[in-house]
Structure formats: C-alpha cells, structure tokens
Amino acid sequence: MNKEEFLKYGHEIVEWAAEYMENAGKYPVSPRIRPGEIREKLPSAPPETGEPMETIFRDFREIVLPGITHWQHPGWFAYFPANNSPASVLAELLTATLGAQCMSWNTSPAAAELEEVVLGWLRGMLGLPEGWAGVIQDTASTSTLAALLTAREKATGYESNAKGLKKPLTVYVSTETHSSAEKGVKIAGYGRENLRIVPVDEDLGMDPAALERAIDADEKAGLVPACVVGTVGTTSSGAVDPLAAIGRVARAHGMWFHVDAAYAGTAALLPEKRHVLDGVELADSFVFNPHKWMLTNFDCSAYFVRDAGALVRTFEIHPEYLKTGEDARVNNYRDWGIPLGRRFRALKLWFVLRSYGVEGIRAMVREHLRLAGQFKGWVEGHPRFELLAPVHFGLLCFRFNDNRPEADLDALNRRLLERINASGRVFLTHTTLRGKYTIRLVVGQRTTAERHVREAWDIIRSSAEALSEDRA
Ligand code: PLP
After folding, report:
1. Is 337 exposed, middle or buried (0-12, 13-18, 19+ CB in 10 A)?
2. Which atom of ligand 1 lies closest to the CA of 144?
3. 347-356 per-position pLDDT tens digit
4. Which of 41, 63, 196, 247 has its CA 20 to 30 A from that of 410?
5. Mean pLDDT, the chain, as a whole number?
6. Cβ(302)–Cβ(136) under 8 Å?
7. How far apart are CA 207 and CA 201, in angstroms?
8. Which of these, 262, 132, 268, lies nearest to 184 by C-alpha position?
9. Stretch (H or E) spanning 372
10. What is the mean pLDDT of residues 64-85?
11. Which domains does the chain have, with CATH numbers?
C-alpha cells in the first residue's frame, strides 16, 4: 500500500471508527451467531497475491462485524466494562505506527520515561504510598501472577530456593477472589493443593479471623504461608475485602499482600470513594486496570509495588545482547514482568489523562455511580425484585422473586436473563451468590447515559412480568 492509498483508507477507516464510537448503540449488543458461522464465510487458505484494501474492509464490515460483541455499546452491562475513548484509540494508532518495542530504556527512551511519569501520576491520583513504583502489564491476571512469583521468590530467598526451603508455600484467597489468582498459583508452581480458600462475611468480604486461623493451622503443619490476595471490587458482586485487617495479618506472618482492584480501583479516584483503598498502605503490590473503567482501551493494567527491587530481582535477566551502558541508571521494564517485548502502552494512558484530565475521568465515574444508585432504588422499590449484595460501585446483583419456591427461582432467573439479552438492546451476565442464581448489571460504559439505564430497567421489568404471567 502506498502513501496515497494509506491516506485514502486511513480517512475511510477513521470516519468509520468515529461513527462507530458515537453510534455503537445501533447494533444488537451481542451477535446472534451460531458456532462456525463466521468461519464458514472465510476462505480456508490465505490469498496468494495481495487483495485490494477495498475488499478487505468490505469483508470486515460484512463478515466480521456481524460476529462482534459490542463492548462499547451503551447497553453494555455485562461482566465488567472495557471502555475505550477517542483519545485512547488515536494513541493506539500512533503506537502501532511507531511500532516500537519497549523492552529496555534504550529500545525507546521516551516510552520508558513516559511510563514512569504516567504511573507516577496514577499513583498520586489513587493516593498510593509515595515511593511505590508502577509498571504497565497487559492484564490484571499477569499482574497478579507477577505478585505471586515475587512472593514465591521472596519466601525462598530470590534465587533457586536460596534459603534451602523444602516446605510447601501456601497462598490465601477468598471464595470471591477472581480466578486469575488460582491460575497464578498453578502457573507459579505453588500447587493447587496449597491454595487456601478463606470464607467471607455476610457482605462477601474476606473474613480476616478465618484467614488468621487458616494461616496458623498451616504454620503448625510446617507449611510456609507466602501470599494473601485481597480484592477491592470482587468480580461476582463488587465486594470489598477489609484491607487493613488482612494487611495486619500478612505483616504479622511475614507474608506478601497483593491487592486486586482490577475493576473498582478507578472508583478510588473520587475523594468520596478513596476509603475503599484504606489499608492498601500495608500491601506489597496493587493492581488496577485502566482498560476496564478508565477510558483506555485494552490492554493496560497498572501494577504498583512497594519494593521495585523485589520485582526486578524476580524477573531480571541480562543476556549480553541486551546490555547497555545505561542499565544502572534507567528502568528496563523487561525486568518488571514476564515478556521481553513490550508495547508502548503508556502513550494511550498519557493521551487519556491529558485529554480528559483527572476531573473529566472523575465526572464519568461519578455519573456511573449515580446511575447505579438510581437502578438500585428501582430494584429496592419493586415488590418482586431483590438485591443480593451490597452496592459499592457500578455493579448491581439482583434477582426476580415472585414468591415461587426457592428451588424454582434459579431456573426462573436463568430464563429471565435469556429473555433480557434476546432484546439485543442490552447485555447482562450472571453469577451465583450464596448458591443463588444472580443477575449482574454493571454501569460503566463511556456512552451509557440515564436513558440507557432506564431502558435496561424497562426491559428487565417487562421481561420478568411476562415470564411470571406465563406461569400464572
Ligand atoms: N481481577 C478482577 C477482580 C476481575 O474482575 C478481573 C476481570 O474481570 C480480573 C482480575 C482479570 O482481569 P484481566 O482480564 O485484566 O486479567
């Protein structure tokens, strides 16, 4: 493709993107596609000779787009948001254009220094302790894995079990902790049998007394408690673990304390919500995802550590071909995580922070919380809906309960969710809380406004009433 063609299709694609970002709401949120349907429309072999961009872009619109789930739709209330923004998308275009590998300071000094600066900004915005250092990872799963690996290395003396430790190391999570912690435990070699699942209290936060009992029991059995993972904003219900109490237990036992605030960390940008991070100062590491609820398109996970030296000692590697004369004076982010090659992710974060400003981001989050509060009021005010968990953020957990036997309510709510999503106007997902099938609704998409939340409630209510009448 020559420059003229790049300009022609560049304009066309940017126009398409601008239209999509304003009007993603015109598509059904999730596609009605059967498995294999898209694959059947694609040739089994690549073209021998290049095809015109016109044809490729046409196929994107006609074949790919109908099979896309529209995460940027204002009716997106499923899982957690993964919102983007025009500023972030433009920065991604520049990142792809530069095509820089940002593994070491000298492979792109501006990328390394911008990453230092924007993560310093984020640290201050969240009120994390001074002296903590940040690095961008691809996902919260990777950040949590980095925490588990560092905890393992710390417990064993940083290099090939230098402390001569032969005893198994144990890790503690709650029943509500995200599955990425369990995956990390498997990958990091702790062994699934050394993962302890601590019970939660009535608000679904980890019970610190039960945590302490589990740790004491393991110590008595000759095991070595190495790491505990606390969560701010659990995936199922948005619960908040008591960080200060967990942190005190972790300190008392010389353990690593990792805090996962992948989704809800963004809420702590609001002074009136900062209390959700109280106790984080006792943590060793902390992750939150600007790619969830902070207008920065996937992937961008901000990982902060108290002791950058511990992180670097875990991951650093010095092959001759990567050594430079600057190594002692700069951050080589290849040593702050798993991959060698790294994308220039700091650029989109910088674009987002500058184009919205801290207040612009806070305004979006505040509005989402207001809308979630409004929805909560509607659920509470309806005689046949019930909330199933406290609401701390934009996530609401509820079910329809028309007084049929408890044993039938799960099936009723499963059918209700199918009916809601069949509307194509909104997309919600489910979980189970204390064994009850629970519908989740998360307000967090950039373009979601009050009218969309009202529409969601109308669809939910009328679908529930229709289902209830079917039975009558
Ligand atoms: N932690 C929590 C609390 C989450 O809710 C999620 C995903 O929703 C994750 C971790 C995993 O995030 P990622 O996709 O960035 O690995």
Report:
1. buried
2. 10
3. 999 999 999 9
4. 196
5. 96
6. yes
7. 6
8. 262
9. helix 346-381
10. 97
11. 1-30+69-84+358-472 (3.90.1150.10), 100-343 (3.40.640.10)
What is the CA(440)–ligand 1 centre distance, in A?
A: 16
Q: Quick one: 252 exposed, middle or buried, by C-beta within 10 A (0-12, 13-18, 19+)?
A: exposed
127-147 residue pLDDT tens: 999 999 999 999 999 999 999
Whole-structure pTM value: 0.95
Mutate to test the pocket of ligand 1, among 179, 182, 204, 235 (most ligand atoms within 8 A of CB): 235
Residue 365: CB atoms within 10 A of its CB come to: 21
Residues near 449 by beta carbon (within 8 Å), at least 6 away in sequence? 74, 371
- The amino acid at residue 300 is C
Q: What mean pLDDT do residues 3-19 have?
A: 97
Q: What are phi and psi of 460, to 5 degrees?
A: -65, -50
**pLDDT tens sequence across 188-211:** 999 999 999 999 999 999 999 999
Report which of 26, 23, 99, 12 is spatially closest to residue 56, judged by C-alpha positions.
Answer: 12
Residue 271, token pair as written in the block: 């002074």
The dihedral built from the CA positions of residue 9, 12, 14 and 16, taken in this order, carries a sign that is negative
Q: In angstroms, rounded to a whole number, what is the distance separating the alpha carbons of residues 179 and 223?
A: 23
Q: In the chain, what's the furthest Cα-to-Cα distance?
A: 79
